[in-house]
Amino acid sequence: MKVMECYFPSFYGDGSSYEINNIQEVLLRMVGEYEQKSEASQASSKLEYYLEKPVIPRVENFDILTWWKVNAYKYPTLHCIAKDILAIPVSMVASESAFSTGGRFVSPHRSRLHPKTIEALMCAQSWLWSEFNGINNPLVKNLIDGMELWKLEVGRK
Fold first, then answer.
1. HAT C-terminal dimerisation domain spans which residues (predicted)?
2. Is pLDDT at 155 greater than 80 in this prediction?
3. Over the stretch 39-84, which tens digit does the pLDDT of each residue have?
């Protein structure tokens, strides 16, 4: 959430708080659905507890799968969500093909996830790891250039 609170104002301007609230609502609904499956309760307080924890510093050899395995007892519902989401194979692609409408990386027949969800996950991974490589990363530069062009095009309409 902290990453979104930092970057969304530059992407959405005044509408950033609306977009962040939408994502928070989706997260709460997702946690609620998983909670119902496990017959647990207090979905929102558990999610808030997790989100209020200090952010783990980024290190190059960090293993997210091991972290979730070790912390499964603290966050059982989020652990189940992480297992489902982290099981999705993610490909490294150029930003042009990530945003193109020409083809999809995973067809609806091969995955239960909607193609837009897969595309969002791929972009999110790229954005999050770009912090490691800094703003000089060509992918980040392409994304920034694309956003600036998009803003210009939207402004003309």
1. 47-128
2. no
3. 555 556 677 777 788 888 888 888 888 888 898 888 888 888 887 7
- How many other CB atoms sit within 10 Å of the CB of residue 80? 17
Contact between residue 122 and residue 105 where contact means Cβ atoms under 8 Å apart: yes
Which value, to the nearest 10 degrees, does the dihedral of the CA atoms of residues 58, 88, 142, 151 take?
Answer: -100
Residue carrying structure tokens 């659905």: 33
70 φψ region: left (φ > 0), alpha (ψ -120 to 50), beta (else):
alpha
Element (H, E) at 1: none
Determine the distance from the C-alpha atom of residue 130 to the mean position of all C-alpha atoms in its chain, rounded to a whole number: 13
Q: Looking at residue 157, what DSSP letter applies?
A: -
The reply to whether the predicted model has a pTM over 0.85 is: no
Report domain extents, the chain.
1-76, 88-157
